[in-house]
Amino acid sequence: MKLADSPGFLLITTGALLGLTLPLGKLAGNAGVSPVVWAWLISTGSAVGLLAICGIRRLRLPLQLSALRYYLILGAISLVIPNLLIFMAIPKLGSGYTGLMFTLSPVITLTLSAIWQVRVPGGLGLLGIALGFLGAVLVAVSRGELGSPASLLWVLLGLCIPLSLAFGNLYRTMAWPDQAHPMSLAAGTNVAACLLLSMMIGLDSNANLPGGLMEHAGLSLLAAAAATAMFTVFFRLQKVGGPTYLSQIGYVAAGVALLCGTVFLSERYGPATWAGAALILAGIGISVRAQQAVTER
After folding, report:
1. Among 25-34, 36-45, 103-112, 222-231, where is mean pLDDT lowest?
2. What is the tally of structural domains in the chain?
């Protein structure tokens, strides 16, 4: 099996790159960049990078009505809504704790997958998700950084992040356009998100472009590059592993965000949070092994 088709490699790579965007978002917020402007940067930077890759690889971007509808709906529910919530929540919850909100996405995705019968995992995969969920519950109970516990309102808003992501995970598989290449769909979805966020900025009197991005060009370029790299493997992971397996990038992203927040941003978390993170890590290992077993059959 090629490395690019390995579910475990794709899961770890996608989740790690996603996790990097959270501490970068906290740095942007600390620098005064509006959440909607930062979300616009992520989608616009990714759209430009992915369109360039599609051009180099001579990949056609589907433009039929069904594909345009796919881009618009998916861009809204899997990029615009969760990214706005993420970058609004980070200053209140911390990048590590916000990242841990991603860990609820697999359970919600699994529930929706079971309802609609879309690639439900076997017993070992379910065990991995269950362990990750227990870890997420433990983390949620801990309520954020030491010395600055999160308010219940922001925790509840944070819980809307995995809900939106779960719906996106299911829709991405169920409405996947026929014969479409993952890279082309990634590019089209980010273009749609960029357009939606541009309209939101135009209607928001408190946001404008470039909105501080030029003053922090290095940080902006790093975030755009990380997001572009993430999307080059994100849609491939969806194709190979399905919605429930892909949703577990939240486990990886949470661990990376927690580690980065602690090491680089001086965020401090209590023993309960770290115990929850350990359970999440165990869940990742079991889920990767379960998917490998399915692939090897």
Report:
1. 103-112
2. 1
